[in-house]
Amino acid sequence: MCFGSMSLFSVEQLSEMALGLEASRHPFVWVMQWIPKGYEERIKDVGMLIKGWAPQLVILNHDAVVGFVTHCGWNSSLEGISSGLPMVT
């Protein structure tokens, strides 16, 4: 899940996304700057958080990745399409 470096979500919105991912119990990788207190410990068995820049194309081409939640920026769109992944935009 990546929303780009220019996204501006409120703490409440980020908290809801974090809680939704946690409740899903599905494996995920989320590139984000802000992390709710205690979140990393709670999701350590199912999720991976990357703070800051991430090698998005490498991640998207990994065999374990089956979908991509994206903000639809030009690079993310091209990388998601070239990786052959279904995208939630």
From TrEMBL:
Gene Ontology molecular-function annotations: UDP-glucosyltransferase activity
UniProt KW Transferase keyword: yes
UniProt key word Transferase: yes
Record Gene3D superfamilies: Glycogen Phosphorylase B
InterPro entries xrefs: UDP_glucos_trans
This protein's UniProt keywords: Transferase
Superkingdom as given in the UniProt entry: Eukaryota
Record-linked PANTHER family: GLYCOSYLTRANSFERASE (PTHR48047:SF182)
Family, as annotated: Belongs to the UDP-glycosyltransferase family.
Protein name (Swiss-Prot/TrEMBL): UDP-glycosyltransferase 73B3
Originating organism: Dendrobium catenatum
Gene that this sequence comes from: UGT73B3
